[in-house]
Automatic annotation (TrEMBL):
Keyword terms: Acyltransferase, Membrane, Transferase, Transmembrane, Transmembrane helix
Protein name: 1-acyl-sn-glycerol-3-phosphate acyltransferase
Domain Phospholipid/glycerol acyltransferase span(s) in chain numbering: 73-187
Transmembrane intervals: 12-31
Pathway annotation from the record: Lipid metabolism
SUPFAM superfamilies xref list: Glycerol-3-phosphate (1)-acyltransferase
Chain coiled-coil ranges: none
GO molecular function: acyltransferase activity
Species this protein is from: Xaviernesmea rhizosphaerae
UniProt-listed InterPro entries: Plipid/glycerol_acylTrfase
Length: 266
């Protein structure tokens, strides 16, 4: 049954993507840039509906009140699956990503992200590339936008040891805006490199923002400490609430460490 539901969800997920691109592309490109967000946000919401109804997976978002009211901040979520690429879009007024320049050349997709003024980075240019990215990011944030960046840079399995990149600390220092950490474990339900979609419920926890002004090293230490503490708590809660889940080795190992710590304290 799990394989059948997963296959049905995957089929409908990509059919939904293609259908909305075909039907709503004219609407997207005719609307003003900010109003055009209704198209990808509608796509995200229909994906959530499909995941709930077909795959049996639902989620709760906690801490929306922690998002700065002026809308100018860096959102720094854990990154475990394709789900978290689009999942929080409906909750954000006008987000943007920093992405590889090569992605801008993909037909249709590249046009979509170009309209939303995403910030491309030419990795071959190294230092010059970062300066250009910072200039563009400052310009976008000055208009009241939110930068989404994954501090670990790539998808990591649930419970894996943290591998945060220093790039988020440099952006924090140079942009001078709050950074909002986000802890969650969608990778337990939508595992990377797998076609299985596991039923259940998980929590997305938006943490209080780290205000600007810290030295980069101290900021990075704070980001890791606060995100990983929340991530550990959610891992324990999620596994307890969903005992049927097949856990990756990284999650099993982390749960063992947390159980040992709890026993030592007791």
């Amino acid at each position: 049954m799990l394989a059948l539901r997963s296959a049905l969800f995957n089929t409908l997920f990509y059919a939904n993507l293609i259908l909305q691109m075909v039907v709503l592309t004219p609407v997207y490109f005719l609307l003003p840039r900010k109003k055009a967000w209704i198209v990808p946000k509608t796509w995200a919401r229909t994906n959530h509906w499909l995941m709930r109804v077909v795959a049996g997976t639902d989620f709760t978002v906690e801490g929306l009140e922690n998002l700065p009211a002026d809308g100018i901040y860096i959102l720094a979520p854990k990154h475990q699956s394709f789900w978290d690429v689009y999942a929080l879009l409906p909750a954000l007024p006008d987000p943007f990503f920093i992405l590889k320049k090569e992605l801008m050349r993909i037909p249709l997709f590249g046009w979509y992200v170009a309209k939303q003024r995403m910030v491309p980075v030419d990795r071959s240019a190294r230092g010059r590339a970062m300066a250009a990215v910072l200039e563009r990011a400052k310009a976008e944030m000055a208009t009241g936008r939110q930068l989404i960046i994954y501090p670990e840079g790539t998808r990591r399995p649930p419970g894996a040891p943290p591998e945060y990149k220093f790039g988020v600390a440099r952006l924090y220092r140079d942009l001078g805006v709050p950074v909002v950490p986000v802890a969650m474990h969608p990778g337990l339900f939508w595992p990377r490199k797998s076609l299985m979609r596991h039923p259940g419920h998980f929590t997305v926890r938006i943490l209080p923002p780290i205000q600007p002004g810290l030295k980069p090293d101290l900021f990075l230490e704070t980001l890791i400490r606060e995100t990983e503490a929340a991530s550990d708590a959610l891992l324990v809660k999620t596994v307890s609430d969903n005992p049927h889940l097949p856990l990756p080795e990284t999650a099993r190992a982390r749960l063992a460490v947390l159980a040992e710590r709890k026993a030592d304290v007791s």
